[in-house]
Design brief:
heterodimer, A: 224 residues, alpha+beta, DNA polymerase, domain 1, elongated, B: 330 residues, Uridine Diphospho-n-acetylenolpyruvylglucosamine Reductase, domain 2, Uridine Diphospho-n-acetylenolpyruvylglucosamine Reductase, domain 3, Enolase-like, domain 1, five-stranded antiparallel β-sheet, 13 helices, 12 strands, 29% helix
């Protein structure tokens, strides 16, 4: 199925598809999805497949890497654990975390560095996981939302503050918001409200719960 | 998910030193791609609008990183992140204009990853071009922005030549104002280029934004001490206060005696394909007293010669007001 969609679906990505894609109407898009026997929600699995198999035509590189290129097997430090993982040269950290390491707490919103839903910490600094190639992270420490709570399950002070201040509404942006807040408080444990606002500026919330989030950051800072 | 979120496969090279990087660029030529922070590159790859064969990650080259104070100012490695530039004590002591400009780029997460060199060398942000359309800049024979139906409120006022894209960079205007020098290396050696000449318009080469050839690497930026400690002004106006690119931005440095303007450099972004140094404004206000008459004269001469498109007339008064403030409030 993934091959079908690679070749004929709306996500078709041959070099010549650039001009046809711009003419794809909503109607043709839906017809295309039906014709290829897939549902829209299967799109996520398609990406998983295309992103993870090494020989899916245009999805991966040749199985024998050219001399001098990166070694695909890689040891990543994630949430204090050393995880060995096979990573494509073009793979972003968000893809590795979600689809190779099953750490799906890191959300993919825009996949373009606009929304901050995929925010993780790398060496205690906030990054958009969608906009960092995994191969650039050898020897560095990645922390995701899954790594915040203590071993006994008790929540990180920022997580608790987000609950206490009714931060999340739909919750999709929440992991990213939490990670941005954690990064801020690691760097500046007593931020002013304006500093907190600036530190959280890279995280969009379509529910518009910005004030609740900001209250939560300030609460966590008071408690820290 | 947006269209085409899977990048096409490429070979990734991670050279540890400059010589290796240069020989890889030499080997792959037009099929190579220089990767710094990736905040421009990965968008191109995800949209599959650019499909290089060999991506050369410059991130592991220590010689390209770091901020050093020199006898004559400051030298900043091209791979230094915008966060480091924005928070560095030496930069903010000598050239707060640059620190402030860097702090206004994009969002915190992006500034943590994006580099100064990448911010300077990023490609045009015209959405027709970024969409992968066959416009002039992409090698075609049409401009989609400057057409009767084109939406062009973010496009240029000056210097249009088939393409009407503008410079998207906030740090570029600051560095042109500070009269910085770009240090460029290739396999034949090293050369220094004035920031003002580093950026090129469509009349020079419509497929590039800078003088960099495929075999060139921007190594560092040197800021001479000439304008250290001078009065300065930076302002960026964008639709959103975070993440967004400037509609118009302005950077100025001024030297005063009493209230008389001895010397000034003033640069506008978002109005032309290159950072637009407003030499006419500089000539008009040099030797003048900072008063309302001078501000008015400066504002009027700033927009002289502007040729607006269908939807960007608003940039003319916006630019005039920014220039007025850049001289009054410096």
């Amino acid at each position: 199925m993934s091959d079908d969609m690679n070749n004929s679906g709306p996500y078709s990505a041959s070099p010549t598809a650039v001009s046809t894609r711009s003419r794809t109407s909503r109607r043709n898009f839906i017809k295309g999805v039906i014709a290829s026997g897939a549902t829209v929600s299967a799109g996520g699995y398609l990406m998983t497949m295309a992103g993870c198999s090494s020989d899916s035509g245009d999805g991966g590189s040749a199985s024998a890497p050219a001399p001098g290129t990166v070694e695909r097997m890689l040891v990543l430090n994630v949430n204090g654990e050393r995880r060995t993982v096979d990573v494509l040269p073009q793979e972003t950290l968000a893809m590795t975390l979600r689809y190779k390491l099953s750490l799906t707490g890191t959300k993919l919103g825009c996949d373009r560095g606009e929304c901050g839903a995929c925010t993780v910490l790398i060496d205690d600094v906030a990054y958009n996981a969608c906009s960092v190639l995994t191969h650039t992270l050898r020897g560095r420490n990645v922390m995701t939302i899954e790594g915040l709570a203590a071993a006994d399950g008790s929540l990180h002070p920022v997580q608790q503050a987000f609950i206490d201040e009714l931060g999340p509404q739909c919750g999709f942006c929440t992991p990213g918001q939490v990670m941005s807040a954690v990064a801020l408080l690691k760097e500046n444990p007593r931020p002013s409200r304006q500093q907190a606002r600036e530190a959280m500026a890279g995280n969009l919330c379509r529910c518009g719960a910005y004030d609740n989030y900001l209250n939560a950051v300030m609460r966590a800072a008071r408690g820290a | 998910m947006a269209r085409g979120d899977m990048m096409k496969g490429f070979e990734l090279y991670q050279p540890a030193d400059l010589d290796n990087a240069l020989s890889l660029l030499d080997k792959f030529g037009e099929e190579s791609w220089k990767l710094a922070g990736g905040q421009d590159s990965l968008d191109w790859f995800k949209d599959r609008a650019k499909q290089p064969k060999a991506v050369i990650d410059l991130g592991g080259i220590q010689a390209l990183r770091g901020i050093t104070e020199t006898a004559d100012g400051i030298e900043i490695g091209a791979l230094t992140t915008l966060r480091e530039v924005a928070t560095n004590a030496a930069i903010n002591a000598k050239f707060p204009l640059l620190g402030t400009a860097a702090s206004r780029v994009a969002s915190p997460q992006i500034r943590n990853q994006a580099t100064l060199g990448g911010n300077l060398c990023q490609d045009a942000r015209c959405w027709y071009y970024r969409y992968g359309l066959d416009c002039y800049r992409a090698g075609g024979n049409k401009c989609y922005a400057d057409s009767p139906e084109g939406v062009n409120r973010e496009h240029c006022l000056f210097g249009a030549d088939r393409c009407v894209a503008v410079t998207p960079s906030d740090t570029a205007v600051a560095l042109v104002a500070l009269d910085a020098r770009m240090v460029v290396v290739n396999k034949d050696g090293e050369r220094e280029i004035a920031a003002e000449n580093f950026f090129i318009g469509p009349d020079v080469n419509i497929t590039r934004m800078t003088v960099l050839e495929p075999g060139d690497i921007l190594k560092s930026v040197r800021i001479p001490a000439t304008w250290a400690g001078a009065r300065w002004y930076f302002e960026k106006v964008a639709d959103r206060n975070t993440w967004d690119f400037a509609l118009v931005n302005v950077a100025s440095v001024i030297k005063l005696t009493g209230s008389t303007i001895d010397d000034i450099r003033i640069v506008c972004g978002g109005v032309q394909c290159v950072p637009r140094r407003l030499t006419v404004v500089e000539e008009v206000v040099k030797g003048s007293v900072r008063n309302d008459e001078t501000f008015e004269l400066a504002a009027q001469s700033a927009s002289r010669g502007a040729t607006p498109l269908n939807y960007n007339h608003f940039k003319i008064p916006l630019m005039e007001n920014l220039v007025r403030r850049a001289i009054r409030d410096a």
